[in-house]
Amino acid sequence: MAQYGLDMDIQFLPGVGPKRAELFTKELGISTVGELIRFYPYRYIDRTSFTRIADARPDMAYIQIRARVLRTELFSNSSASAVGIASQEQNKDGKDLKFNTIKRMSVWIEDGSGQMELVFFKGIKWMHEKLTPGSEFIFFGKPSAFNGRVNLVHPEVDPAPSTTTSQPTTTSSQPTTTAIQPTSATAGEKPTAPSTKAVSFTDGCTMTGVYPSTERLKNAGVTAKLMNRIMEAAMDKGMIYIQESMPEYLIRQCGLVPLHFALRNIHFPQSQDALEKARYRLKFEELFYLQLSLLKQKYIRSRNDVGIRMPKVGEAFNKCYSALPFPLTGAQKRVITEIRDDMKSGHQMNRLLQGDVGSGKTMVAVLSALIAVGNGYQACIMAPTEVLAQQHFKNIGKFLAPTGVKAALLTGSTKASERRELHAGLEDGSIGIIVGTHALIEDNVIFRNLGLAIVDEQHRFGVEQRSKLWKKACCGCPPHVLVMTATPIPRTLAMTLYGDLDVSVIDELPPGRKPVQTIHATEGKRAALYRFMKEQIALGRQIFVVYPLINETEKLDYQSLEAGAEDIMNNFPFPEYKTAVVHGKQLNDVKQFNMDAFAAGRADILVATSVIEVGVDVPNASVMVIESAERFGLSQLHQLRGRVGRGSEKSYCVLMTGYKLSKESKHRIELMCATENGFDLAEEDLKMRGPGDLEGTQQSGLPISLNIASLAKDGILLNAARDCADAVLKEDPELSADKNQMLRKELRKDKYEIKDYSRIS
Asked: What is the rounded distance in angstroms from the CA atom of residue 218 to the CA atom of residue 631?
């Protein structure tokens, strides 16, 4: 690897070396100087302020104390008493001490307001020689409590400045870019003359950055102080190669500081004001390029992509619509109009359909599929699980009855004889709508004229899986694409995960849907819960009981499904009560038999894992009991709650938890009890858990990685970045203007080379 420029291997930086470099790569994914410079602190410590010993508390994050050493005490492994006390008069050089037997050292310090103990378990000999009684130092660390006293364990130790400069001072907050000037050198090139340290990046720095780390890095000696020294070395080696990445006109227009200023002050802030300007610049840049990469695809597609023109709704659509046993909601009608406009436009539809639990997305999917059939094309509906595919097929069958349109179901469990018949029906066009799982993308599944592909809960499919489906179009044009999700997605996340798609939202529930009463209960209420469940069963209702785990594990002491099912069966004995059990490790036949038994009303209680989160529609089920509810995220809890309340009877969701809840878990439970609005809950879930957890993808679910911006916290900035990207592309969709040359160049970099979501989402 190059030893100059941003591609320089970090092992050549002072304090790193080959072994630590390997750890940096494994633990943080950092192997080059350029990657290290773009690795930002997640918080900062003000090193200009000091805490008096008398004011130190164990709940403080970090404190800095200026104090004088009183004495040191050394403790061996075999004795709880001190084996040596160092002072100016006794054992000054420690020659009489055997440090290999010393396991702990206590250092007592005082600052005039009180005394404090410092504890060291490593580097004892060195600290013993350095911390001589009477000498003054600055100690920095995380306070903790032991035996009723506040102490510091392994604090950082620095010599106290002389009296004339005893207090660090701050520099001017005016941003300046004169310290480092961009050069024409490119990454990997050796500079014409060896770079000398033209600037100290810590000059004027009033705050110390704290970087994300891991236990393995800490154990390898990569302390916070060393990390700052390594970062300064990286900046010294690499900043000369950093080139501005935003055009001058956008820097002025958006009020951004130059990139060099931002990078310097994100790592070594000269002031709080400089830090905020640096953060704004770096966050804006990430979000701007993220949106630019997505919107550019959308602009190009809307101009160039030819889609299948479907000008009419057709007879099948009208027959189905006329026979509906209930009126569509205003939201459903609006969304169907948006979809129909797309399908008759002559451009390929790429639309995301969001709808809360029970909002009627399936009905919209059926009518959309019938538009395709009415224009002489086929439609497919792809679901992530067999349970959901079977549920869709069952519901769709009811609506298709008056239309005469033939529908079929294809899953991994479909028998070979049935498959042959299905394949033939798809090839000759006699099957108008097919519902299935990933079995639909198998090579031997050939459509006569696929015109519409509907993907439900699309984030559960891999990119390559989805792309195979689009390639099955046989008329020279890609099929129209409708992506559906029952997981309410906050606008900021939808703009990013699906930034190149048009978005429709069903924000209205069908009439007659009663709110679900949500209750929080702990183990002490279990007897009352079981009495309530028996009352509901006596009224003819059915009950879900959901567990987060299948088997007990050593690390998690939550009640397992097996133990829970046994407890349910003991308290609800057969034959008076009938209990079915469903989980992901069962054979498909067993799972389907038990699910069907509950759906048909032959079982009173369904004990299951979250496999029933999607795809189970049992209108007679009025109670959802979620065991160890603190183990679930808000979105998942909301999805599970949506399994009840589908009939005309009053429904309940009972959240069972342990007695001791973390602050976050308690907040989630309180929110669940307070609101049924899925979008409000999704916004909170995004704030609490981040986009990765929400979608089950980590940040890798995003088109590019975000090093500093947060979709949860930077929604306003995301909107501003998107508006800016949109304005740029409206004026210059191809980014061919001279002033946008830098944007075009930046988007060509590997990190922006994402697959075309317009064809695979």
From this structure: 29
